[in-house]
Amino acid sequence: MGTPVNLTKGDLDLAASITINLGFLARNFYDTRTIDVISAFAGFYNDTPNATDPEILAFSGARPQDLSLLLQVLGERDMLRDSIFWLDAIRQYLPYTPGTGHLLVPVFAVFTVVTTIVLALRLWSRQTIAGGIRGYDWIMVFGYFMTLVYSASALYHAVNINISSQFWGYSWNEIARQQMFYIVLDILYPIAALIIKSSLLLFYYSLFSGRYLRLSVWATFGFTLATTMTIILYSIFKCHPVAYWSEWYTSECDSHQKIPYLVTGSFMILSDVIIWVLPLPMVLKLQLYRREKIAAIFTFSLGIFACIASIFRLQAVHKYFFTSAGTGKTPIINTWTIVELNLAIICASAPALRALCIRHAPKLLSYGSNGTDSSSNSSNNSNNNSGNGSMNERNRKNTKSVHGRVIVHHDQIRPSDLASLRSGISRTGSGWSDFEKSVHYSSTSRIGSPV
């Protein structure tokens, strides 16, 4: 064979195939870069042009059945030697680029810090404002730790294993570890996503009183669980044996792996959209000022950012799932996965953070100290001070009605607060009527509207 200077995509794919197959064969060189294994074989054939099978086995440490299978695939005995000489001759023209793991490091650092702070503030809000940390909060904490496990595994893979973007830059042991990490990450991602979504659905279930809304929550959970189990089972059993890298020549794998991952990934995005849309009809029915309702809708719609991250992740799966021209870029997929999981936790904590702002920094959301819209207060104060500086009885009643209609948040009112609310707001007044319409209340469940 000649020595091409400008290698085509087909040349690079062939080079990757030869290095992987020879790397698996040569058990004596499992800690040596596969391209260096090729050079070692080239030197062996130069010294032993007519090498016999026992001599090849002794040099490489290969199992007899592995050599037999490789020769069957090549078709001709001389093809093995010629392929090795060709690849050794063009090795100087092969691209060597560092792995893409550097993209993941800052993403991991930033999102881990931000998500940790957000989750801590969420728990503080629940404990100090909502009357205690609920079950779905603890589930979210579990989802946070599972996200950390996924992120740490992806980071270790990116920094310590993904040292090159080409397979000929790895030893066989490094390639085997890569394959193992692919399975681990493919399993951890849907588990972490399921836990986060379960926390959100349980939160919605505690807010919804309508039968159909609660059935919608159960149906969404069933759909999400089925999708998750499908991804996990497929990731485990897509190859036989599961540890397919231990029997590279005889293992059988699905030849269309990208399609199931794209389909299940689309289902994951669909469940994301359903979960973030579920509470919006309930929020729209709340009797709130327009500005408050817009703020509530915005709070519950933040999940759209997690959905967008899911779409970018799926696009990365489509583009980088398979090696192209001997190059793999799995850390790009892992980076978008980390973004998606962390954004889901952050967006799911938005209602609790909003309650915290209303309580401790009301000016950030333009709320007065009593929870009312500060612009409404300013308008009322302006009206109260106009004219001769005094108000008639009608204006006093109107003002009392406006201030009596407090902005109720599901994280702002504890059961112990009901007595003071009852004494402060007359049941016959419009304030209490609005309150009852806005609040899903029972003696044991949470109190307040999901604003």
TrEMBL record:
Residues annotated as domain Rhodopsin: 121-357
Transmembrane segments: 103-124, 136-159, 179-205, 217-237, 259-282, 294-312, 332-353
Keywords annotated in UniProt: Membrane, Transmembrane, Transmembrane helix
Domain of life of the native organism: Eukaryota
Subcellular location: Membrane
Main localization category: membrane
Record membrane topology: Multi-pass membrane protein
Low complexity: bias regions: 369-392
Stretches for region Disordered: 369-399
Assigned GO CC terms: membrane
Keyword flag Transmembrane: yes
Family affiliation: Belongs to the SAT4 family.
Name under which the protein is recorded: Rhodopsin domain-containing protein
Native source organism of the sequence: Orbilia oligospora (Nematode-trapping fungus)
